[in-house]
Amino acid sequence: IVLSGGDDRLWKTWGFPDGNILLTGEGHMDWLSGCCFRPSGTQLVTSSGDTTVRIWDLSRRGCILTLRGHSRAVRGCSWHSCGDFVASASTDGTSKIWDVNSERCRYTLRGHEGSVNSIEFLPFSSTVLTSSADKTLSLWDVRT
């Protein structure tokens, strides 16, 4: 199964090798910039130009949580390997670490001088890697 999102504001799961669409989700008000499966495979996270991050439950076929806090477009998202945290990167120059269980932002990462364009958790760690339009990469320990 492959996951995609695009300018049409939709995310889609695709089956292979046939390439047939298995599920489609809608709800964002602008383009999708990122999408990622939860490690358990039961949910996914999407990021969008509408400034939100959304959590989707595949069995319910719908959005179960909308995370708001960025002031500009969200360029990327990533799920922590434990499945309890989501990271987001925004053109507002910040990244956020979201606690999915409490449905709140746990940390806001500030330090880039430009748009934060991508974010990834390093596997099985509390370290996040961000890349920015300011031509830098940063490693963050989200515990500190």
Automatic annotation (TrEMBL):
The keyword Repeat applies. It comes from the Eukaryota. It comes from Chaetops frenatus (Rufous rock-jumper). This is SPG16 protein. Keywords: Repeat, WD repeat. WD repeats lie at residues 25-66, 67-108, 109-144. GO terms for biological process: axoneme assembly. The keyword Repeat applies. One of its GO terms (cellular component) is axonemal central apparatus.
